[in-house]
Amino acid sequence: MAVEVVYRSSRDPERLFMDKAEADRHDKMLELAESLAGVLHKAVPSLSEDQVEELGIFMARNRDTFARAFKNQPDALGELFAEAE
Amino acid sequence: MAVEVVYRSSRDPERLFMDKAEADRHDKMLELAESLAGVLHKAVPSLSEDQVEELGIFMARNRDTFARAFKNQPDALGELFAEAE
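Structure tokens for the assembled complex are given below, as produced in the milestone run.
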């Protein structure tokens, strides 16, 4: 038996990471997802809490692709489901 | 009476512009909005057509803010409703 260090984001306490950098990436992703959920809910009030949460997490997980799409490459979005199929 | 040139995006034929650059910006905005609506609908299938269209247009109209948020400034999103209030 031994004591070991694990890391977690306070936004998602159940998910533990052995690697601090990975916990930090997870925390940053959730931070962006929460901000997105907030503005999207204000923009389209008919969305449910679950829907804005799903939208936020989907976009935050794919933030690099969305960054390119919003900057000047709308075609970048085509990659999102091409990979999954 | 005189003949004059007006411009429009084929994506939104009812909206006419006197200025070609403005018509072009409108077309680019709608192009991005359509791409966004498509991927968001695949990501969150419970959304309605109207909801994904509203989301796409809202984000495409604010594309510079979203570009910064996705790149490395999630706080940029705070500006979106601060201005309106």
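Chain A has one domain: 25-84. The longest strand of chain A covers residues 7-8. Further analysis is deferred to the final report.
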